[in-house]
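Lab notebook, design round three. We kept the backbone fixed and only want residue identities now. Task for the bench partner: fill in a sequence for the structure below.
Input structure tokens:
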């Protein structure tokens, strides 16, 4: 057993460190065991200690803002840390888990070709869970005892007038029957209300259990469908699960923004959102998303890395239109960045239409990345013409002093600190969802790209030296000589 610490949010999302018995420093220092480039961290911010019995404790060493666990508890002194606990440190979140080492099975052959294995697409359909209706607990009183009393009095009067005591006996018998009937009806009504109350309690318990099961099923499907930057880095480092998503799958072009509430059901009085879940964004065909604010490039790098590890170059291409190619230097060598002529698709706005003409009708889904807000605001720009004609996905990376262009249907606005405002569809609502974002540094992006640079997608027909998807008999045998066939 060992402890694994993974940055779930912040500028160094996905970095994982394995802790053995001993003391380990968390911070910005170059020699920190668990290092992060978060400027809100001190060089030596936190001390994690793995004891001989496997326990993990945390002690805050510096920093004005206290370190908190996922439940909001402050790390005070030497605090014990349970497995599967999130620690909020600075603007980042560190996930600590204790698990046995599992040997990963790679899907990369020795020659660098990736075996794109079939993948079970997660599905979830909301169960039909109608809330139980309120029971009828109103009393239904039985008939009164006044008639029985009047009958008994009348029998007594008749007995006195006629001097026949039998009238009293008959009156008493009738009164007894009336009282017994009244008591029986009263008891039956009490049993009815008690049974209805008990059935309602059981129905509410069953409905709550069904909602919890449905919620758990949704959470499992959502976690399986939504990639994360941490999972992408692990996949690239261990060469496992690479390029398994296909264009026909509903979650093919999903990326994770960070951690936040995710909508679940709208037909229940219970919580309609699940907290602390990966919040997805979609970069599918004709989807246009803007990321604005300080640190937008880190968010864009995280999204592109997720796509580059889940989707193969045969299905996905990335094109960057920029006047500052040095900002995207960390993606040099990524297979998904290759244009059909062999060059890397980091181009100026003038050359952008030529790159899209090269792709022609090869069927690739293209994600267009641009950091030029003026080009998006100008209707006659090359970026706007490409969006209209080819309908690629758009990822606009904007500075904090620019507004989100009207051409973008979704927006992520970064705030000071770890939080951002996410609007999934500006056409339906402008109410944002608060998300704790997950970014990626340029250095971490370089390491992921280096791990993917030597890989090959056997299904990619644009890459030279790869196996084509179809081969014609005439191409193998050459021209057919009818005379030679006749002579034979």
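Proposed sequence:
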């Amino acid at each position: 057993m060992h402890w694994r610490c993974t940055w779930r949010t912040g500028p160094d999302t996905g970095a994982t460190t394995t802790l053995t018995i001993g003391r380990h420093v968390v911070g910005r220092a170059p020699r920190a065991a668990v290092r992060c480039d978060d400027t809100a961290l001190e060089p030596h911010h936190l001390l994690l200690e793995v004891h001989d019995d496997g326990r993990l404790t945390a002690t805050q060493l510096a920093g004005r803002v206290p370190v908190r666990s996922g439940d909001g508890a402050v790390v005070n002194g030497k605090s014990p840390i349970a497995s599967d606990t999130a620690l909020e440190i600075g603007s980042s979140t560190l996930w600590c888990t204790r698990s046995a080492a599992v040997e990963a099975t790679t899907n990369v052959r020795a020659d660098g070709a990736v075996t794109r294995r079939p993948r079970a697409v997660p599905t979830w359909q909301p169960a039909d869970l109608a809330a139980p209706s309120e029971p009828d607990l109103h009393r239904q009183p039985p008939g009164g005892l006044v008639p029985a009393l009047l009958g008994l009095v009348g029998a007594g009067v008749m007995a006195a007038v006629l001097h026949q005591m039998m009238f009293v006996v008959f009156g008493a018998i009738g009164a007894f029957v009336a009282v017994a009937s009244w008591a029986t009806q009263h008891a039956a009504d009490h049993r009815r209300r008690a049974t209805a109350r008990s059935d309602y309690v059981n129905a509410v318990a069953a409905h709550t259990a069904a909602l919890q099961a449905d919620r758990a099923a949704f959470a499992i499907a959502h976690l399986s469908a939504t990639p994360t930057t941490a999972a992408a880095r692990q996949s690239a480092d261990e060469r496992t699960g690479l390029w398994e998503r296909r264009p026909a799958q509903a979650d093919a072009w999903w990326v994770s923004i960070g951690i936040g509430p995710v909508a679940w059901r709208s037909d229940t009085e219970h919580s309609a959102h699940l907290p602390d879940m990966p919040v997805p964004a979609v970069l599918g065909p004709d989807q246009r998303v803007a990321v604005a604010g300080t640190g937008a490039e880190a968010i864009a790098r995280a999204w592109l890395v997720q796509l580059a590890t889940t989707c193969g170059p045969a299905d996905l291409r990335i094109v960057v239109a920029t006047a500052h190619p040095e900002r995207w230097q960390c993606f040099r060598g990524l297979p998904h960045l290759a244009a059909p002529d062999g060059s890397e698709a980091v181009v100026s706005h003038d050359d952008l239409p030529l790159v899209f003409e090269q792709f022609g009708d090869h069927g690739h889904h293209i994600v267009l990345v641009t950091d030029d807000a003026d080009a998006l605001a100008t209707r006659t720009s090359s970026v706007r013409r490409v969006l209209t004609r080819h309908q690629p996905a758009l990822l606009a990376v904007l500075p904090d002093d620019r507004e989100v262009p009207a051409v973008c249907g979704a927006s992520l606005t970064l705030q000071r600190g770890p939080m951002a405002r996410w609007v999934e569809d500006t056409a339906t609502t402008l109410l944002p969802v608060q998300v704790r974002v997950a970014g990626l540094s340029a250095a971490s992006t370089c390491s992921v790209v280096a791990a993917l640079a030597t890989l090959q997608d056997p299904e990619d027909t644009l890459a030279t030296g790869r196996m084509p998807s179809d081969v014609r008999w005439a191409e193998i045998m050459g021209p057919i000589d009818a005379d030679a066939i006749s002579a034979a």
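Keep this in mind before ordering anything: The mean pLDDT is 87.
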